[in-house]
Amino acid sequence: MMSRILLVVCLAALAAAPLVLPAYFLTVLIPFFAYSIILLGFNLLFGYGGQLSFGHAMFVAAGAYAAAASYSILGIASFEIMLAVAIVAALCLSIPLALVASRFTGIFFGVLTLSFGMLLHSILFKFYHLTGGESGMRVPRPTLLGMELDMYNKTGFLTGPFYYYCLILLVVLGYIMWRLVRSPYGLHLTASRDNPVKALYLGVRVRWVRTVAFIVSAVYGAIGGVMLGVLTGLADPELSYWTHSGHLVFMTILGGYQQFLGPAVGSLVMILVQDQLMAETQYWRFFVGLALALIVIALPGGILGGLRRLKLKKEGKAHADARQRRPARSTA
């Protein structure tokens, strides 16, 4: 109950943020919304399915390039159309890859997804006439629900209507993912992670549930990629580079991949720490790595995992103290 109340308070604070925070901090929160959506999908594959992908950033890039292509090829600048094109692109890319990758587990799955991601990066980087090469493709300012919103400048658009649109999108997709992991499918997925042989013996279609997790995570990644593309105004091939995939893995572990909201917490901490250190020193990469390494060492289960372990420890101590205070029963 307390966790739900805390979640409602956090959402209310995010909804009220444009009223009290400067525009700069709001533009920092939009990547948090995008990465939270991306990592909700990634955690379905990794946290609940036990399949660690080192090439998941390719779907983020697919979403950003789909948003750019919907304008440059179709001549449409609707955000809803961009999302639809991105979902179709994610499905077209992920379904054949999922059918192949779901046959493997462990390091073999990770290396295979890494190779797929690097292959897409090479295509985006080398096919200049199609993708713009290293310059990328421009993502225009979209319309929202058919409204041009010309009364806003770029900053006003991002920190106003687009901010709330992304927040609502995060809430809706977060609720859908919550229902998914609590459904019978979610139980089958975790069973295939914990003991695939026993799950298969009990009738779980292990390869099928892993394939679905791969496809759903790809769709979530593409949606987040559209949001990042609109924010920066550019679809860049570096979005699909292996270091970006490692970035996603690190944020997930940082927040706690065994917790539903852990990846979202990890993305927020990572974005805020990195932004603050970039403003303070040119050696920000060193301090970001040091600070986050210390967090991971001190909290091996991630931030939320560490808080949960501390809570369980306090509850166990309280139960032990209560037992000690009970009067001993008479044996007479």
From TrEMBL:
Principal subcellular localization: membrane
Subcellular location: Cell membrane
Membrane topology: Multi-pass membrane protein
Keyword line: Cell membrane, Membrane, Transmembrane, Transmembrane helix
Residues passing through the membrane, by range: 32-50, 57-75, 81-100, 107-128, 162-181, 212-235, 283-307
InterPro entries, alphabetized: ABC_transp_permease (IPR001851), LivM-like (IPR043428)
GO CC aspect terms: plasma membrane
Pfam families: BPD_transp_2 (PF02653)
GO molecular function annotations of the record: branched-chain amino acid transmembrane transporter activity
Listed name of the protein: Amino acid/amide ABC transporter membrane protein 2 (HAAT family)
